[in-house]
UniProtKB/TrEMBL annotation:
<keyword id="KW-0597">Phosphoprotein</keyword>
<dbReference type="Pfam" id="PF00072">
    <property type="entry name" value="Response_reg"/>
</dbReference>
<dbReference type="InterPro" id="IPR050595">
    <property type="entry name" value="Bact_response_regulator"/>
</dbReference>
<dbReference type="GO" id="GO:0000160">
    <property type="term" value="P:phosphorelay signal transduction system"/>
</dbReference>
<protein>
    <submittedName>
        <fullName>Two-component system response regulator</fullName>
    </submittedName>
</protein>
<feature type="modified residue" description="4-aspartylphosphate">
    <location>
        <position position="52"/>
    </location>
</feature>
<dbReference type="InterPro" id="IPR001789">
    <property type="entry name" value="Sig_transdc_resp-reg_receiver"/>
</dbReference>
<dbReference type="InterPro" id="IPR011006">
    <property type="entry name" value="CheY-like_superfamily"/>
</dbReference>
<feature type="domain" description="Response regulatory">
    <location>
        <begin position="3"/>
        <end position="119"/>
    </location>
</feature>
Length: 125
């Protein structure tokens, strides 16, 4: 089981993001399209999904909708991490019960704080 699954199709974002999270001590897996997100989640059951909205094959919002509609997967924390920072994008993601929303480019410290918050959420009494 990995701590974090990153769903990001841009290597220029994925590689440094993975490095930052692994350097912070988390076990990280990554995929580059929406269909692979669902397959990986069913196989590895990560505690947190960092989800880009603009993914090939299945959009991040479609992935989020599928996760939240599946009672076996609905408990996975989802942090949307996207370049699409318009008000309607944030609203759609939060309406689909995303646990957080960060726009790219992001501050590494802010991202790490949000990841820590979400990963500690499932350990709270």
């Amino acid at each position: 089981m990995s701590d974090i699954l990153i769903a990001e199709d841009e290597p220029a974002i994925l590689d440094p993001l993975r490095f930052i999270l692994e350097h912070a001590g988390w076990c990280v897996e990554s995929v580059t399209d929406g269909e692979a997100v669902l397959a990986s989640i069913r196989r590895a059951r990560p505690r947190l999904l960092l989800l880009d909205i603009m993914l090939p094959r299945l959009s991040g919002l479609e992935v989020l909708r599928i996760l939240r509609d599946d009672p076996h997967l609905a408990d996975i924390s989802v942090l949307v991490l996207t370049a699409r920072g318009q008000k309607q994008d944030r609203k759609m993601a939060l309406d689909l019960r995303a646990d957080g929303f960060i726009t790219k480019p992001f501050d590494n410290d802010e991202l790490l704080a949000e990841v820590s918050r979400l990963l500690s959420k499932d350990r709270a009494p």
